[in-house]
Amino acid sequence: MENTKKHINVVAAIIRRGEEVFATQRGYGNYKDWWEFPGGKIEVGESPEQALVREIHEELSADISVEKYLTTVEYDYPEFYLTMACYWCSVKEGHLVLLEHEAAAWLPLNDLRQVNWLPADILVIEEIERQEGR
Question: What SS3 state is found at 40?
Protein backbone atom coordinates (compact mmCIF):
# COMPACT_ATOMS: atom_id res chain seq x y z
CA MET A 1 0.00 0.00 0.00
CA GLU A 2 1.37 3.41 -0.98
CA ASN A 3 1.95 5.98 1.74
CA THR A 4 -0.45 8.83 1.04
CA LYS A 5 0.11 10.64 4.31
CA LYS A 6 -0.23 14.41 4.02
CA HIS A 7 3.04 16.39 4.09
CA ILE A 8 2.74 19.77 5.82
CA ASN A 9 5.34 22.53 5.49
CA VAL A 10 5.24 25.07 8.31
CA VAL A 11 7.34 27.77 9.90
CA ALA A 12 7.85 28.44 13.60
CA ALA A 13 8.97 31.55 15.45
CA ILE A 14 11.32 31.16 18.37
CA ILE A 15 10.54 34.58 19.82
CA ARG A 16 13.33 35.59 22.14
CA ARG A 17 13.37 38.23 24.86
CA GLY A 18 16.72 38.23 26.61
CA GLU A 19 17.19 34.77 28.10
CA GLU A 20 13.57 33.69 27.54
CA VAL A 21 11.55 32.34 24.63
CA PHE A 22 7.81 32.46 24.00
CA ALA A 23 5.79 29.24 24.01
CA THR A 24 2.10 28.77 23.24
CA GLN A 25 -0.41 26.10 24.26
CA ARG A 26 -2.76 24.72 21.63
CA GLY A 27 -6.44 25.19 22.35
CA TYR A 28 -7.85 22.92 19.65
CA GLY A 29 -7.43 19.73 17.63
CA ASN A 30 -5.76 16.40 18.29
CA TYR A 31 -2.91 18.10 20.13
CA LYS A 32 -5.00 20.38 22.34
CA ASP A 33 -3.14 21.40 25.53
CA TRP A 34 0.29 20.55 24.07
CA TRP A 35 2.86 23.34 23.84
CA GLU A 36 4.51 24.61 20.66
CA PHE A 37 6.43 27.46 19.15
CA PRO A 38 3.94 29.72 17.34
CA GLY A 39 3.77 29.78 13.55
CA GLY A 40 1.88 28.11 10.77
CA LYS A 41 1.63 27.10 7.15
CA ILE A 42 3.44 28.82 4.32
CA GLU A 43 1.00 30.09 1.68
CA VAL A 44 1.68 29.98 -2.06
CA GLY A 45 4.08 32.72 -3.09
CA GLU A 46 5.32 33.43 0.44
CA SER A 47 8.85 33.08 1.71
CA PRO A 48 9.21 31.35 5.10
CA GLU A 49 10.01 34.73 6.66
CA GLN A 50 6.90 36.37 5.16
CA ALA A 51 4.76 33.48 6.38
CA LEU A 52 6.12 33.88 9.90
CA VAL A 53 5.43 37.61 10.02
CA ARG A 54 1.87 37.02 8.75
CA GLU A 55 1.14 34.05 11.03
CA ILE A 56 2.39 35.78 14.18
CA HIS A 57 0.37 38.87 13.33
CA GLU A 58 -2.74 36.69 12.80
CA GLU A 59 -2.22 34.50 15.89
CA LEU A 60 -0.67 36.94 18.35
CA SER A 61 -1.48 40.43 17.02
CA ALA A 62 2.16 41.55 17.07
CA ASP A 63 4.77 42.47 14.49
CA ILE A 64 7.99 40.49 14.67
CA SER A 65 11.45 40.70 13.20
CA VAL A 66 12.69 37.43 11.71
CA GLU A 67 16.35 37.54 12.66
CA LYS A 68 18.15 34.29 12.01
CA TYR A 69 17.45 30.79 10.72
CA LEU A 70 17.72 28.21 13.54
CA THR A 71 16.92 24.78 12.12
CA THR A 72 14.47 22.69 10.11
CA VAL A 73 12.97 19.67 11.83
CA GLU A 74 11.04 16.82 10.30
CA TYR A 75 8.64 14.69 12.29
CA ASP A 76 6.36 11.84 11.29
CA TYR A 77 3.11 12.29 13.22
CA PRO A 78 0.45 9.57 12.90
CA GLU A 79 -1.81 11.89 10.86
CA PHE A 80 0.77 13.73 8.72
CA TYR A 81 4.45 14.29 7.99
CA LEU A 82 5.74 17.66 9.20
CA THR A 83 8.61 19.81 7.92
CA MET A 84 9.09 22.85 10.15
CA ALA A 85 11.57 25.65 9.45
CA CYS A 86 12.40 27.54 12.65
CA TYR A 87 13.72 31.07 13.01
CA TRP A 88 14.91 33.22 15.89
CA CYS A 89 12.58 36.23 16.10
CA SER A 90 11.85 39.21 18.33
CA VAL A 91 8.81 41.40 18.87
CA LYS A 92 9.18 44.54 16.78
CA GLU A 93 5.93 46.24 17.65
CA GLY A 94 2.90 45.51 19.80
CA HIS A 95 2.33 42.97 22.52
CA LEU A 96 1.75 39.25 22.12
CA VAL A 97 -2.00 38.72 22.46
CA LEU A 98 -3.45 35.21 22.40
CA LEU A 99 -6.01 35.05 19.59
CA GLU A 100 -5.85 31.30 18.88
CA HIS A 101 -4.01 29.67 21.79
CA GLU A 102 -5.34 28.90 25.25
CA ALA A 103 -2.19 29.84 27.16
CA ALA A 104 1.33 31.14 26.68
CA ALA A 105 4.49 31.55 28.72
CA TRP A 106 7.92 33.09 28.54
CA LEU A 107 10.22 30.19 29.39
CA PRO A 108 13.86 30.54 30.44
CA LEU A 109 16.30 29.24 27.83
CA ASN A 110 17.92 27.07 30.50
CA ASP A 111 14.61 25.40 31.47
CA LEU A 112 12.52 24.97 28.33
CA ARG A 113 11.33 21.45 29.18
CA GLN A 114 8.95 22.49 31.96
CA VAL A 115 5.88 22.21 29.67
CA ASN A 116 4.47 19.34 27.60
CA TRP A 117 5.90 20.14 24.14
CA LEU A 118 4.73 18.62 20.88
CA PRO A 119 7.22 16.00 19.63
CA ALA A 120 8.49 18.10 16.70
CA ASP A 121 9.09 21.06 19.03
CA ILE A 122 11.23 18.85 21.31
CA LEU A 123 13.61 18.50 18.34
CA VAL A 124 13.76 22.30 18.12
CA ILE A 125 14.52 22.54 21.85
CA GLU A 126 17.35 20.02 21.43
CA GLU A 127 18.85 22.27 18.74
CA ILE A 128 18.42 25.40 20.89
CA GLU A 129 20.15 23.63 23.78
CA ARG A 130 22.96 22.51 21.47
CA GLN A 131 23.48 26.01 20.03
CA GLU A 132 23.16 27.75 23.38
CA GLY A 133 25.57 25.25 24.98
CA ARG A 134 23.10 24.14 27.67
Answer: strand
